Amino acid sequence: MVQGLNAWINQLRAMTIAQPRRAVGAGGEMRRIIEAIAAGDADGAARASFDHVDRVRKFALAVLAQESGGLPTALPIT
């Protein structure tokens, strides 16, 4: 199951990383994560990581909807 989920994540990453708008905000998100880690702020790093993953998840869903004319019914992401 974990391998299947990793494969799905890698497929989504490959599909979305080529999109022109994908990088918007990513630099700032990575900076927030790194700064929180460097400051020893585990909660801040977790929050910043979640925010990044959540934004990319929404972006991936939008790309899937655009490319398929609608969302797939069996997304392993909630």
TrEMBL record:
Keyword Transcription regulation found: yes
A GO term for molecular function: DNA binding
Record carries keyword Manganese: no
Segments forming domain GntR C-terminal: 1-54
Swiss-Prot/TrEMBL keywords: DNA-binding, Transcription, Transcription regulation
Family annotation (Pfam families): FCD
Protein name: FCD domain-containing protein
Organism encoding this protein: Lichenifustis flavocetrariae
